[in-house]
Specification:
single chain; 287 residues; mainly alpha; 14 helices; globular; cell inner membrane
Length: 287
């Protein structure tokens, strides 16, 4: 009997997980293009909504927190401080939420053809990133007007903060995206979590208010939360260079807990891949 070389064959429906995303780059680009083109299809304002929504958030929070509660008097350039946190939380909320719905939203593709299913949550986060960029451009422009100058530390802080949010959005988006196929309660749970996202990080308030009421170990835990760490990194990158001799400085504990934040973000990717691989074999049947 002639031996058949099976080395080039793969078990159907099983790939290399996140590593396959690099091999299927063309399909990833198609999914991202589809997501960006259909987001505002039929809308009169179209991509202008990417500016209108965060602007409305900013105005509302600035009036309530900056004017009514007088936080603006305590934090110099409170507008930059506030907006640098809002744009980052918006990126997390949109990326995490879209990634959670990504498998169910692409039901037709999942049921008909095989492709690495990790493409869907990753494409969802990339689409969210494209809507994050216009907000980032506005933040940068406002910071420059108020005296912002680039520095290696500031740029590194901005890049690291963006990485933390992107990694956590993909990791937890994969976990809850997989769970959402079998249990649609997962989507509702994520929406509940996102309700608290703005308040779970020093966006509308300063970190020292938290440090005053929490014990040291609990404050370290709060600061190690990747969302809190990323917001403080954005404050370092955008807000801090616009202030001179501000009494409010980034928490010294940030540099102690930052390695834990990075480790948590990377761990979320690993855990997300494991959970996703466990559930993906039944995606077609469950959908």
């Amino acid at each position: 009997m002639t031996d058949i070389d099976l080395s080039e064959f793969r078990t159907p429906g099983r790939g290399k997980g996140l590593l396959d995303v690099f091999r299927w780059r063309y399909l990833l680009r198609l999914l991202v293009r589809k997501g960006t083109q259909t987001r505002y299809r039929g809308s009169v304002l179209g991509w202008v909504w990417s500016y209108v929504k965060p602007a409305a958030q900013f105005v509302m929070f600035y009036i309530v927190m900056g004017v009514f509660l007088r936080f603006g008097a305590e934090i110099p350039n409170f507008a930059v401080y506030l907006f640098s946190g809002i744009v980052l939380v918006n990126f997390f909320s949109e990326g995490f939420g879209n990634a959670t719905r990504s498998i169910v939203d692409n039901e037709a593709l999942v049921k008909k053809i095989y492709l690495p299913r990790e493409l869907f949550p990753i494409a969802a986060v990339i689409v969210s990133f494209t809507h994050f960029l216009p907000q980032l451009a506005i933040l940068l422009l406002a910071s420059i007007v108020l005296g912002w100058t680039p520095s290696l530390v500031g740029i590194a802080a901005i890049l690291l903060g963006t990485f933390l949010i992107a990694a956590v959005s993909i990791g937890f988006g994969m976990i809850f995206g997989a769970l959402n196929v079998a249990f649609r309660d997962a989507q509702n749970f994520v929406e509940l979590v996102l309700m608290f996202a703005t308040w779970a990080a020093p966006v509308l308030y300063s970190w020292d208010l938290v440090a005053r009421v929490l014990p040291s170990w609990l404050f370290h835990l709060y600061l190690a939360n990747p969302l809190s760490a990323a917001v403080e990194l954005f404050h370092i990158g955008f807000w801090l260079p616009t202030t001179t001799d501000s009494p409010l400085q980034p928490p010294a504990e940030l540099w102690t807990v930052l390695p834990y934040s990075v480790a948590f973000a990377v761990l979320s990717l690993v855990l997300g891949q494991l959970v996703f691989r466990h559930f993906e074999r039944r995606f077609a049947q469950e959908l």
